[in-house]
């Protein structure tokens, strides 16, 4: 419970820092958007992620196990895939 509360406060503070222009005139950019807001959310969900992975790994059928892990990895890197797709330079050599 204390860890969840700490992560929730961490998330709120990092979110407010990353959107500081809502409260004060931005003079110098603050770089709080490099995962600082996602880290506490990940830590709050880490136990559920581990439970999900554990249930996938203990599935008896190999095909379902491999498909589940592949789907999980694809979900985790989907933002990177979208970013690389959108920022791809045509004819870049």
Brief sketch in words of this structure:
This protein has four helices and no strands.
- Main β-sheet: number of strands, strand sense, barrel status? none
What is the rounded distance between the termini?
A: 52 Å
Strand content: under 5%
| Helix-residue proportion | 55-70%
Number of helical segments? 4
- Using the CA coordinates, give the radius of gyration: 19 Å
Low-confidence stretches: none
Structural class: mainly alpha
Overall spatial form: flat
Q: How many beta-strand segments?
A: 0
Order of helices and strands: HHHH
Mean pLDDT: 81
What does this structure look like?
The chain has 93 residues and is mostly helical. It has a domain at 1-40. Helices cover 66% and strands 0% of the residues. It is built from four helices and no strands. It has helices at 2-18, 38-57, 62-76, 78-86. Helix 1 packs across helix 2. The chain starts with a helix and ends in a 7-residue tail after the last helix.
Properties at a glance:
93 residues; mainly alpha; single chain; flat; 4 helices
